[in-house]
Amino acid sequence: MVAVKNLFHSKDLSDKQFLDEVICLKKVNHHNIVRFLGYCADTEGEIMEIEGKHRIVEVQKRLLCFEYVPNGNLHHYIKEKTHGYEWNVRYKIIQGICQGLHYIHQERINHLDLKPANVLLGANMEPKITDFGVSRCISEEQGTMVTKIFFGTLGYIAPEFIDKQQISFKSDIFSLGVIIINLLSGHNGCIPEKWHESIDAPCPQMKRCIEIAQRCVDTDPHKRPTAGEIIDYLKETEIIIEKDLPTIDEPPRKKKPIYEPRNDPGSSLHQVVQRFRALPILTLREHSRVDTVFAELIVPECLLEGSKKPGRVPFQLLQCITENFSEKREIGQTRFGRLFRGLMRQRSVAVMRLLMTIGFNDKMFQNQIKTMMLTQHKNIVQFLGYCSNTEETVTEHLGELVMADIRERLLCFEYLSNGSLDRYVSDASCGLEWRLRYQIIKGICDGLHYLHGNHIVHMDLNSTNILLDDNMVPKIADFCLPRVFAECQKTTLIRKKIGTRYIAPEYFLSDGVVSYKIDIYSLGIVITEILTGKKKRFANDLLLESWKKGLLHTSSADLILLEQVRVCAEISRACTAYDPDKRPDTGRIIEMLLETETDGAGAQGNLLYMEFNELECILKGAKKPGILSHQLLSLITGKFSRQQEIGRSEFAVTYRVMFL
Questions:
Q1: How far is it, in rounded angstroms, from Cα 530 to Cα 234?
Q2: Which whole-number Å values give the CA distances from 239 to 96, 211, 234, in the listed order?
Q3: Rounded to an integer, what distance in angstroms lies between the CA atom of residue 223 and that of residue 531?
Q4: DSSP three-state, residue 501
Q5: pLDDT band with cut points at 50, 70 and 90 for residue 441
Q6: What does pLDDT average to over the chain?
Q7: How confident is the model over 637-644, as a mean pLDDT?
Q8: Which region among 267-271, 451-455, 556-560 has the lowest average model confidence (pLDDT)?
Q9: Is the pLDDT of residue 240 over 80?
Q10: Nearest to 91 by CA among 228, 245, 287
Q11: Are 385 and 311 spatial neighbours (Cβ–Cβ below 8 Å)?
Q12: Does the global pTM surpass 0.85?
């Protein structure tokens, strides 16, 4: 995914200023700086009325292309009153901003507009500095500069710039100090009077950040530390904390953990819940101790890293990370159970609490776990762990209170931020750009091919069971009732009929006979939805005509894309054939898709198609940022459609592009 920033045409934006910004952006390459991918400086003839007459005027088009950063900007998280982050996350944000600022100062770049709105947050809440629109490159000989132009944002501008129009690296340090105060106090923009007196500083890191912020906002720029010195100050507290921790040879200090093994007589669910209820609300204004509490949890490595083998997860832990399965943590429901988002050490996981339906026994649950442990593919939702827990509780039975065992079964998966595919299906006139739709179709086919290759039939493939990650990569989900075929089997018989309206007709007409071709039928309906926004059959000529309107006629690359649309339409029709024997298998479907890619790229080889490949290489880090055509940026943003707009300021509009 990429972000395209379309700068407004303005007299204030000179060629030199745009060139300076591009030079600054091309110089920087750091994990705490938003990655620059390319730029466009073009002109287009537009008809305008000037002095009562219509004239053709050359209008400058200036655009910048960056990596897409999914969690928005820091300004939102500072002013948010009901949701926030524990001190550990805020400290990492402060640390990351300091590292990014230290890097650009080493590159002799003065940002001059550092503020929370210009700090974006990545998938793991890592900060990335952006917007170098007013930045200046300072030579080795220069220390302080004087400028007649006023820029920056009130509340973050250093006093010497307001009084004497002087700018230096210490101007950025002042802005950094205000940001740190914002993160500590929960205020945006201005510095509250006696702000440090109102903050309870329970840990050395927080105390050190208060001291740093006070020095950064000193009215005398010479008394402010450099970004490098600030990083050293922060490291000192980390060393102190590490020294304070017990060594391998030293026995750990006795401290009551929030989660204890069940065989410990002192352990109870009540104690766990009460300890979490005692914590303050997680906001940026209140300095919670959740990081300390989570550090005490016995957390399975599979949940933290996602790379370990899935394993058993304690029920108490799942209660804690979902706030006792609260409504505000609920993210959806399926016919198998309720879904919750669990937060743990800056990582999100999805927790499915299965419905305790009659007939769903231990053997079925064990088979389900074994099946999910077999699957590991980029287009399959990653299974992280499971829980089977029995609690003895008092319940009413036939008018009397009795003791009963309550069984809970839960599953843990990776959390996918963009939700399910059904939220994005639409016709050709709006919604996702074709290249992204094609990549989604291809990814679903790859995932289903993997399942069938492992003798697994999904039996409930539909657009709500296909989830999308940060990069809109599709992942097949919901394996609550899969059927695992023996290697020699091609069909099997099941007694209880399951599935949705996506299910093949033979399933209802042949007493529950199941084969891989049932999934192929469901795949055909999903592809139809992606092409048209509907589940019904369509006329090929009408479909192609609607897609022609959405593609540029001037580029031969459109012929390639239109051919992909045609082939996908052909695949969807073949998949939904009434006779299951006439449906293609996943291997043949993938071959058909690959043929359109090979023929198109080799035969057409046009500039626009090459530009797409160029941008993809830049995004992957294989090439350096370069010039991008206005035609390309117009195409991938849907001609700068408002539907793809993600931000607007007085200087520019930013669009999100989901096509790679």
A1: 50
A2: 18, 17, 9
A3: 62
A4: coil
A5: very high
A6: 77
A7: 76
A8: 267-271
A9: no
A10: 287
A11: yes
A12: no
Residues counted in the chain: 660
Kindly tell me if the per-residue pLDDT of 283 is higher than 60: no
Is residue 641 within 8 Å of 4, Cβ to Cβ? no
Helix (H), strand (E), coil (C) string for 284-316: CCECCCHHHHHHHCCCCHHHHHCCCCCEECCHH
Report which of 213, 32, 5 is spatially closest to residue 125, judged by C-alpha positions.
Answer: 32
The domains of the chain, with CATH numbers, are 1-68+624-660 (3.30.200), 71-244+271-296 (1.10.510.10), 297-414 (3.30.200.20), 421-605 (1.10.510.10)
Tokens of 617: 């290489």
What is the pLDDT, as a whole number, of residue 502?
78
**All residues at 6 or more sequence positions from 133 whose CB lies less than 8 Å from its CB, including other chains:** 17, 21, 113, 651
Structure-block tokens of residue 382:
């990653």
The predicted-structure confidence for 329-361, as pLDDT tens digits, reads as follows 898 887 778 899 988 766 789 999 988 765 567
Please state the φ and ψ torsions of residue 5, each to the nearest 5 degrees.
-105, 115
Question: What stretches of 53-186 adopt beta strand conformation (E)?
Answer: 53-67, 109-110, 119-121, 127-129, 136-137, 145-146, 166-167
Question: Which amino acid is residue 89, in one-letter code?
Answer: V
By CB neighbour count within 10 A (0-12 exposed, 13-18 middle, 19+ buried), where does 402 fall?
Answer: exposed
Looking at residue 271, what is its pLDDT?
A: 40
User: What's the rounded Cα separation, in Å, for the pair 582 and 26?
Assistant: 54
| Alpha-carbon dihedral angle through residues 519, 525, 526, 528, given to the nearest 10 degrees | 150
Mapping DSSP to helix (H, G, I), strand (E, B) and coil, where does residue 345 land? coil
Residue tagged 């530009």 (tokens): 611
Are 69 and 13 in contact by the 8 Å Cβ rule? The answer is: no
